[in-house]
TrEMBL record:
Membrane topology: Multi-pass membrane protein
Swiss-Prot/TrEMBL keywords: Membrane, Transmembrane, Transmembrane helix
Family under the similarity heading: Belongs to the autoinducer-2 exporter (AI-2E) (TC 2.A.86) family.
Species the sequence originates in: Pseudaquabacterium pictum
Protein name (database record): AI-2E family transporter
UniProt lineage: Bacteria, Pseudomonadati, Pseudomonadota, Betaproteobacteria, Burkholderiales
Length: 353
């Protein structure tokens, strides 16, 4: 069977794409910091180009933009530190009282149903006290033991934390040249179509980033305000942290919820106060999932509310947590490709007959 030139060309592109996908799959652990740095570089390079266009030395513009971005990231993470510094001593003092109250409340309720249950408060108190009284040497020993068991994971995390900023710096420095090199690899006959496609993707992804920032700011304001209205002492740090952490789907919200419930338990020392804080977070999750994200992100990239929900669920099912992270930007790029495919289909003989 003799293949036509067009068929040979198609098979060649399929083989190249397969080899590229195989290489990406095999090198996935090594490529992780480079992919993270590339995503950050894509988001930050417009600021660098803006400063460079105003005759700033490029190295100074890159250092300023990357430094501010890293400072903001560290600031968000440090919002947890004062919360934990305040709550852990209170938790140590309140745990025995809370356990006694829980035992006194649960036992009569279960006794009504004929269940003989007694919470071993003394053992739980002793275990928690031992856990919280552990000194730094104990924590360090445990960390080192963990490192010996899973040292590759620990070293990988530390290596990525150092490598990502370094890779980001070089990507931002060479971004225009890298883009030009990639464009130069596209066959001349396809450059116009490919350039148009990536220009549309760039516009859609820009809308996605701006929409996501609006969602984060709106939720930070909501949580801080709502928690302050119910008399929550740590409304500002926990509310702002939760709002900004929603950029990491589910994990950010879950961490903020855990911190808020812990602080509410210690402050209010009652089920009513804890349920009130939990209700604020439940309403915030509904607000994010069904109003803010579909309206501020979905509509900006051309996805309706149902499409946004479906994309999050589908990518999460297929690729897990990473799929949830990339669901909306990947859907935006797929939407651009679908629109172009529909235009080509309507202009084809298959549609026109």
């Amino acid at each position: 069977m003799t293949l036509s030139p067009a068929q040979r060309q198609t098979l060649t592109w399929i083989a190249l794409a397969t080899l590229a996908a195989l290489a990406l799959w095999l090198l996935a652990p090594v490529l992780t910091p480079f992919v993270v740095a590339a995503v950050l570089a894509y988001a930050l390079h417009p600021l660098v180009e803006l400063l460079a266009g105003r005759r700033w030395p490029r190295v100074l513009a890159v250092l300023l933009v990357e430094g501010v971005a890293l400072l903001l990231l560290v600031s968000v993470l440090l919002l947890i530190v004062p919360v934990m510094a305040k709550e852990l001593p209170l938790l140590k003092a309140q745990v025995p009282v809370l356990l006694d109250r829980l035992n006194a409340t649960v036992n009569p309720l279960l006794a009504r149903f004929g269940v003989d249950f007694t919470l071993d408060v003394a053992s739980i108190k002793a275990w928690l006290t031992q856990l919280m009284d552990a000194n730094m040497d104990d924590w360090l020993s445990a960390a080192l033991a963990s490192a010996r068991i899973g040292g590759s994971v620990l070293l990988s995390l530390l290596g990525n934390a150092i490598l990502v900023p370094v890779v980001l710096f070089y990507l931002l420095m060479d971004w225009p040249q890298l883009v030009a090199r990639v464009q130069g690899l596209v066959p001349p006959r396809a450059r116009e179509a490919v350039h148009g496609f990536f220009a549309d993707c760039d516009a859609v992804l820009g809308q996605y980033l701006r929409g996501q920032i609006l969602v984060m700011v709106a939720l930070a304001a909501y949580y801080a305000t709502a928690l302050a209205l119910v008399g929550f002492d740590l409304a500002l740090p926990i509310g702002v942290f939760t709002g900004l952490a929603v950029a990491i789907p589910y994990v950010g919200f879950g961490l903020g919820l855990a911190l808020a419930l812990l602080a509410a338990l210690l402050q209010f020392a009652s089920l009513g106060g804890v349920l009130l804080v939990a209700g604020i977070y439940a309403l915030g999750q509904l607000l994010e999932s069904f109003v803010l994200t579909p309206r501020l992100v979905g509509e900006r990239i051309g996805l309706g509310p149902l499409a946004v929900i479906f994309a999050l669920m589908a990518f999460g099912q297929l690729f897990g947590f990473v799929g949830v992270l990339v669901a909306l930007p990947a859907s935006a790029v797929a939407l651009v490709a679908l629109r172009r495919a529909l235009v080509a289909y309507r202009a084809s003989r298959l549609f026109t007959g």
